[in-house]
Write a structure and sequence with these properties.
The structure is a homotrimer. The first copy, chain A, is α/β, with parallel strands linked by helices. Chain A folds into two domains: about 5-45 and about 50-110 and about 265-350, 3-Layer(bba) Sandwich (FAD/NAD(P)-binding domain); about 110-260, FAD/NAD(P)-binding domain (3-Layer(bba) Sandwich), CATH 3.50.50.60. Chain A is built from nine helices and 22 strands. The first copy, chain A, has helices at about 10-25, 45-50, 65-70, 130-145, 160-175, 205-215, 320-340, 385-400, 410-425, and strands at about 5, 30-35, 40, 60, 70-75, 80, 85-90, 95, 100-105, 110, 150-155, 185-190, 220, 225-230, 235-240, 245-255, 255-260, 265, 295-300, 350-355, 360-370, 375-380. In chain A, the strands form seven sheets. Chain A has a five-stranded parallel sheet. In chain A, strands 13-12-11-17 form a four-stranded parallel sheet. In chain A, β1, α1 and β2 form a beta-alpha-beta unit. In chain A, α1 packs parallel to α7 (about 320-340). The longest helix of chain A has 20 residues, at about 385-400. Chain A is globular and about 65 Å long. Chains in contact: A-B, A-C, B-C. Chains A and B meet through α6 of A and loops of B.
């Protein structure tokens, strides 16, 4: 009889406990350790920030659900992991032990790397957490009653640029609907070397596609930008040239701003020798397993992956929905084998499939593998992407409520994209 | 009983007298003061310049028409307006008095701001007046019999770039038809900071769209250009950099050239304190009414509007067909109310809707509002734009002949664009 | 009775003997002098280089064919032409005399202009000859078993860039099929001032089209590049700026490389005063006839034409399939007239029509005339281009085997393009 603990109750963690519960005999214990009573569907946060969703529409109470499905549930959050002792200390001082551990915490949001950044300062907003998005919505409503300039973007070393683009497009769409877009100059500030880089050195010709979309929506931009500090209504950043030398200092006023932070590993694991890299991300082998502590696995944003290539301002590579799904499935297989005393044999697909919502339209990216050059590489634009993203939300929330384990990207998105691609190719 | 005089018999003025005549009781006098016996449909001038129209096809005799519709008509042109005396002196020394005045003169063409510019010098052509376009056609026929380089563009401080683009594309189309395009290198010289700026900082992604169209037609270009002088067959201009510093001096030979001038206010009003801005454009409030002389209104190209934003070489913002139409309607309403002793309450829509003809195709722009960022912002290319422009000409000439007052853009173009946009969005 | 010798048994030469044989009475002798027993369909060479064709599928034995059709055939190759004596010395020491000569040798491949370039060094590959393409395929198979960086491009003064682009796209397509594209970084190195120049200063907006295609396929590029030397697995080149000054020195490693050389005239004619220009290309008048030796005509790649315009690194203008076809037809007419004692009166169409295959798609170019500005100018992308190219190969090989004389471009490609253009224009 084994006890498997999953640390983190987000998209990765929740999928992980359901899959493990389904695959393992009843005699094995599956434990979920989150830091809240509720599951948040993170991809919907930008919609919360402009009022298209209420938090109640995209969060799910976990307590009863876990009880119903025979999963032990803790919601106090982890203070510190003790891998040598196969246990973790929770924030209330209690302790949880495990035979196998899956780390699925997501990132720590490193707002502190830029003075004045983040929702705690009240200067810039975030869509990384549903709570942040709620705060952002309050700030957005102030913008609506008193329109003025908006700055959206990402800090240096950020690795997940999609939500910044999404928020820019969604905000633009909502402001147009309210017929006040004309009173809101928008500027996009990013460490990416070009618009559409996405931490992936582009996918298909996302450079042309996104630049054109920005021009079309009159969103100005600065690339190779390192944000240095934020004060109330002012953002300062340095623009670098191609060789990484300082090109220009900028200062922009704003009445509303959403800046994505860089990601780090969470405090509970940060600095554990052999478990994490210097930024606190979990080191894993090709089977999602930590080399030093082979009973520890990791899935999702908390795993360590190398950047795509050097950029004048540091950027990281994102972990997208399909990759996370695939990591969860591989981890389930490999833990089942480990319980049976076998070696792990399943690898995740390191492919990026991503739906970026524009509010009224969207862009779908397929990058196989994630890092270029690629065997498959595709980007397409259309209203169908927006609809697909809504469908993904509905599906996933249903999955959480009904304890389903089908992978969405694998079953639905890839097929949809395949059909779409075929249609485009016929032209 | 009130006497309302409309000064100017172009697209704005002719629509204005018809609308006023229709809305006002017979006892009120409606007076039209033009500077010619004929109405010219200005947008067709580029077609005259390449022989696609004869002047007789796009001009209308006004004398009998005005008589038929009970509108007093003067064709001598105004020497000087005397707003303090509610009267104007005509070029023949006679005088016309008014209770209400609508200024709809269009611009003065400031050819004199560049040495050697304009049809009077015989060096460069113009499509601003039908007479100019006739002269341009004679020059075009010389080009056809002796092909050589062509330079098309606009002078610094120009505000209406559409006809320059149209003329470039139409000329290209006609030269291809005649199979001599291969003997005519073409160069476009403009103060705009980029191709497709249009004095509007672009509409949708007109930058990509127009640059691609220019490359496709092998029209070379220089932006940020300030034309300094023209001599017979030689044009000199300075190219500025982004910061407005001189980048390069250019000199280009040409065998045919069409350069749009900057616009100013007409002499009859220039320098009247409180009525005009320093360039002679009529100052108006949101109700088309001059603040100093509240019985004076203005519509069309002669009104003062701010530029979209600073550019390295000065540029202005254009007044497009839909704006003019909307100004006329608002003015009619407000004058009717003023006659009844009420305050004006109707505002024009400051939106740009524009059809730019390419001869074989065209681009339609929708910019609401005119100045970015915008609530609606759209550009599309297709043969249908050329056909829509021809339809607009036919409709407007019919309107003038039959004294119709329906607004064309409001009723037809916006619907057509809406349908087209829907079609594109479905893709 | 006249004896007409055609020197060269490629696409031009083989078409030439068939047309002459068909047009001339039996009493006239038609002679073909090649340097091999086999005809090679050169455009298929890139397919040979990735294994999509075997040489046997795109070559044809000439000996029996020529015998069957009453054409005298020599396959030893020409050592030296003696135009003053109306004869040529073959490589075996024998001699062939003529009354009329058509030079259709194609180019000499000037690999020697860059140290280390070309298949003889074993460093870089070529697709100019079927034998080269076979060697390239062997090298490609090594790449497949040990993937690594690829460099594709063209040397300074090259004039035929299409096959370099084709090979880049075809290689990309094949590597994707084999799912190893992710292990093969690709770089394109070209003297062209921009991607899509093609020695033609672009056709339509090939700049946007090809740049986008390169980004889409993650092929990096350097333009204005002058390759200076190649060693085993290393290529060195100088990047120039717009004004032709050195901008940067580059050195790239490769595991597989295909670099097109500059073209020169073949040794057999090089340096014959009055017959060739300094690079050995045959000087011709508008009737394909050499001014100094009026019984000598030339068709195809061996004729002298001026470059499109100066470029920072020298480039030449290509001779495309349609031009060659047209030169052959004009030459046939003019020789028939000359035999009858009349002056020549037929001119070739100096138009570029080109199908560039991408393996899974392709781009069709129409440039009339070849040098911009043009009367017709068109580029379009689609899978149909790949299919059209396959059809051209099948057709031409059938034509060679069956001694047909119909021009393919004239009869088929132009019609197809016309239909396609009409379809696009309807949008």
């Amino acid at each position: 009889m084994a006890r498997i603990v999953v640390m983190g109750a987000g998209i990765g963690g929740i999928s992980q406990v359901y899959e493990l519960r389904k695959q393992l005999r009843k005699s094995h214990e599956v434990v979920l350790v989150g830091d809240s009573e509720r599951f948040e569907f993170t991809p919907s946060n930008p919609w919360v920030a402009v009022g298209w969703r209420k938090p109640s529409q995209m969060t799910v109470d976990l307590r009863k659900l876990m009880q119903k499905h025979g999963i032990e549930f803790h919601s106090q959050g982890v203070r510190r992991l003790h891998p040598a002792g196969n246990s973790m200390e929770l924030n209330d001082g209690s302790s949880v032990s495990y035979d196998f551990l899956v780390i699925a915490t997501g990132p720590k949001l490193a707002f502190d790397e830029v003075t004045g950044l983040g929702p705690d300062t009240g200067y810039t907003q975030s869509v990384c957490k549903t709570g942040h998005a709620q705060t952002a919505f309050a700030d957005f409503e102030k913008l609506v009653s008193n329109p003025g300039p908006v700055v959206i973007g990402a800090a240096a070393s950020a690795s997940c640029f999609g939500p910044a683009y999404e928020y820019a497009f969604i905000l633009d769409t909502e402001l147009r609907k309210r017929k006040i877009r004309d009173k809101v100059p928008m500027h996009f500030v990013t460490p990416e070397p070009y618009i559409g880089h996405l931490g992936l050195d582009g996918v298909g010709d996302t450079k042309s596609l996104m630049e054109s979309e920005f021009r079309d929506r009159h969103i100005r931009w600065t690339c190779n930008a390192k944000i240095t500090s934020v004060t109330d209504g002012q953002i300062r950043f340095t623009e670098m040239d191609e060789d990484g030398k300082e090109r220009k200092q900028h200062e922009l006023p704003f009445r509303h701003s959403m800046i994505l932070p860089a990601f780090k590993g969470v405090d509970a694991v940060f600095g554990i020798d052999g478990l994490t890299n210097p930024r606190g991300f979990i080191l894993i082998d090709e089977f999602q397993r930590n080399p030093r502590f082979p009973n520890i696995y990791a899935v999702g944003v908390c795993v360590a992956i190398p950047p795509v290539g050097p950029t004048p301002v540091p950027t990281g590579a994102p972990k997208t929905g399909y990759m996370i799904e695939s990591m969860v499935t591989a981890t389930t297989h490999n833990i089942c084998r480990a319980i049976d005393g076998k070696e792990p044999d399943t690898r995740a697909t390191w492919n990026a499939v991503c739906l970026a919502d524009f509010g009224d339209s969207g862009v779908a990216f397929v990058a196989l593998p994630q890092i270029p050059p690629r065997n498959t590489n595709w980007a397409a634009r259309g209203k169908w992407v927006h609809l697909a993203k809504v469908a993904y939300e509905k599906y996933f929330l249903h999955k959480v409520r009904a304890a389903k384990t089908e992978p969405y990207y694998e079953k639905t998105v890839l097929k949809m994209l395949g059909a779409r691609r075929l249609k485009d190719a016929k032209q």
